[in-house]
Write a structure and sequence with these properties.
5 helices, mainly alpha, Ferritin
Length: 165
């Protein structure tokens, strides 16, 4: 394995790690929080499922991180920061921040309605990213499509929380 291949592997690993940084910080904050102030009904079920959901979220963050690496490499091959790849990576960054914000709103601010509104925006930017990533490299768009299926499931859970509470 030559140096270039090692660099490409390291880039891919970093791209998969970056989306999980925000998630890791939220996990650390959740584990420091004892949930005593949570006023939700069915609190025990939410707390016990939360870490399973976060684990799955981590897997899907790795998938979209890998997809972003594909887009980044395509941009890198073009040798410029213009066009669709640039737009895709900017929207991707915004999407990640909104995605991290959902957990903060839901867990720490306990505002289920605002969390759902955030998730709707996350879904819309996610669908937009499928189109952008697909235009850069179809495989990246297909990988992001898997994440949208996950987002649909999470949005449904958020709606159920809203109805229950």
């Amino acid at each position: 394995m030559d140096a270039l291949q090692k660099i490409e592997i390291l880039q891919a690993l970093m791209a998969m790690f970056i989306p999980n940084v925000g998630l890791l910080l939220i996990i650390l904050a959740i584990s420091a929080n004892d949930f005593e102030r949570t006023r939700w009904d069915y609190r025990t079920k939410v707390e016990s499922s939360l870490f399973v959901l976060i684990g799955l979220w981590c897997v899907f963050y790795c998938v979209i991180g890998f997809a972003s690496n594909i887009v980044f490499k395509k941009r890198e091959l073009a040798g410029q920061w213009t066009g669709i790849a640039k737009a895709a990576l900017i929207v991707y960054g915004i999407h990640l921040v909104l995605s991290w914000l959902w957990l903060v709103i839901l867990i720490f601010h306990e505002n289920i309605m605002l969390a759902l509104a955030d998730l709707v925006i996350v879904n819309v930017t996610g669908v937009h990213l499928i189109c952008l990533f697909h235009r850069v490299k179809p495989l990246a768009g297909y990988l992001f499509s898997l994440y949208i299926i996950w987002l649909t499931f999470v949005t449904t859970l958020n709606c159920c929380l809203l109805i229950i509470n």
